[in-house]
Amino acid sequence: MRRPMVAGNWKMHGTRASVAELINGLSRQVLPDDVEIAVFPSSVHLVQVSAELAGKAVVVGAQDCATEPQQGALTGEVAAFQLLDAGCSLVLVGHSERRSLLGDSDEVVTRKFAAAQSCGLTPVLCVGETLAQREAGETLAVVARQLAAVAGKLGVQVFERAVIAYEPVWAIGTGLTASPEQAQEVHAAIRSQLAAQDAELAGRVRILYGGSVKAASAAELFGMPDIDGGLVGGASLNADEFGAICRAAGS
User: Is 90 exceeded by the pLDDT of residue 223?
Assistant: First the structure.
């Protein structure tokens, strides 16, 4: 049985004061015990969030890591080892904003995935298609390529210690959400692609849906057989909304 996960990606939001207020709000939420809950603050707030969530059932992740796992001469980057030292247990790799705006290629994403695992972090591999790709009927091919880039280079067994997040690029921050059926189709295809190499592993891997997830739509999305929770963007900045999404995953 796969344990659901709900992860909040705070993106480039937050000050020390607003982060403290958000954590206080999360602390007042009744969160389900059977759901793994994670937050991904900006790198400058990782230590603060790790300290303020100490002893609480919420894990901390980073939004990105360097391709090199250990500290060194790479100005502006943060190594996976440093993220571990800051209290992280998870890290996003391949988020569409990194791919499209900052040029993270499949090769770079694979190197970051490997760097994270080499330091004991669990990578959350983000995959997804643009609106143009969906309209061209290329969704499954695009997602399959992004997944195969990692599995082909590192071996499918690396997904024993990873999470996958399907995020249709056209639904991120737009208010648009894939229908439960659209999301399920892609999640099922991802699981089938893994199963072609290792059926047992494919049955254990958690696949999250991301793309304007809100409390109102969460229960129906999470009710799909291959959707194991959500990677939540803007809604995770509201403690009440995020709490409701977490509860939907546990219902």
Answer: yes
